[in-house]
Amino acid sequence: MLSVNLRHIEYAIAVAEHGSVSLAAAAIHISQPALSVAIAALEDHLDHLLFIRRKGSPLVLTSYGQEFMTKAVQLVAQFEALGKTDYSAEHRRPVVIGCYEDLGPLLIGPILSEVEERYPDSSLSIQTGNFDFLSREMLAGRIDLSVTYNLGVDPSLVSREITKIYPHILLYPDHPLAACEKIRIKDLSDEPLVLVDQGRSLWHMVGLFREHQISPNIAHRAATYEIMRSMVANGLGIGLSYTRSKSTTSHDGKPLLDRKIVDGYSAEPMVTVSNPANPLSPFAKEIEKLIANIAS
Q1: Are residue 283 and residue 148 in the same domain, yes or no?
Q2: Fewer Cβ in 10 A, N or C end of the chain?
Q3: How many whole angstroms separate alpha carbon 234 and alpha carbon 221?
Q4: Which of 204, 96, 112 has its CA nearest to residue 149?
């Protein structure tokens, strides 16, 4: 038995509008015999006639056909509405942003503030985590868009560069190297280092030393970037990071100095990442542009 689909319903509506199979067939670009067969099959499936057929007269709807056509027109209109973007509704559709945890203190506040000002009726939440967490959650469809470094991004995800970040050195003011405005990698060969212990990020930093055939002296591994800054400020070693805070003090109020590396470094792209299998909504795309403006 025929399964009714939207095409059959559209055919019936066309015939009702034109009062003729031949006129309807011409209007919707289908052969008259094919349209007649489709209408007959639909009526057979419904077990009711939709049209009163009188030779030489226009087709008119039966009482059943009138009721059916009212519902059919509504159904087609609802289906067509599904394909149209309602931007006011899009801004109310929840969007989940992922943020690499070291970048959270730099970006989350500005992002949420901008979104609340521009889109007060929107629903935006942010989750933070390491590289593996962000990739896993995006592949599962639980995060729509992430902002992170271009490290450990699953190859099935799409990355778009928004800016480049350069590594820098953090010092406590009394350190002998504090008098230097620029520092070379080899100047750090014997210095105790405090690095953020986040897998890919840690080994990326170690790679800067290995490129110069130097074995880094890792004295401490910090769980987060802010803990690393505090440890450096308290004289436990030198910090090395791509993430750069705009604050000149640690959380516990101690001063920190920032110095450039003059050799052996490469820029690390900061990227937004999305899952092509989970396309971004128009609102999420607007958020992506906003993030790029904030980060650049």
Answers
A1: yes
A2: N
A3: 14
A4: 204
pLDDT for the residue numbered 1:
41
- Rounded to an integer, what distance in angstroms lies between the CA atom of residue 133 and that of residue 204? 18
SS3 234: coil
**107 in Cβ contact with 230 (< 8 Å):** no
| CB neighbour class for 285 (10 Å; exposed up to 12, middle 13-18, buried from 19) | middle
Considering the domain architecture, whether residues 141 and 281 belong to the same structural domain is answered as yes
Q: How many CB atoms lie within 10 A of CB 270?
A: 23
HSE-CB at 142 with a 13 A cutoff on CA atoms is 8
Could you list the residue range(s) of the whole structural domain that residue 59 is in?
Answer: 6-82
Instruction: Tell me, yes or no, whether 93 lies in a domain.
Output: yes
* Domain co-membership, 191 together with 259: yes
* Alpha carbon 94 to chain centroid, angstroms: 12
Cβ contact 147:289 at 8 Å: no
Q: Residues 157, 273: one domain?
A: yes
Q: Tell me how many domains the chain contains.
A: 3
Average pLDDT value over all residues in the chain: 88
Contact by Cβ (8 Å): 107, 294: yes
pTM, entire model: 0.65
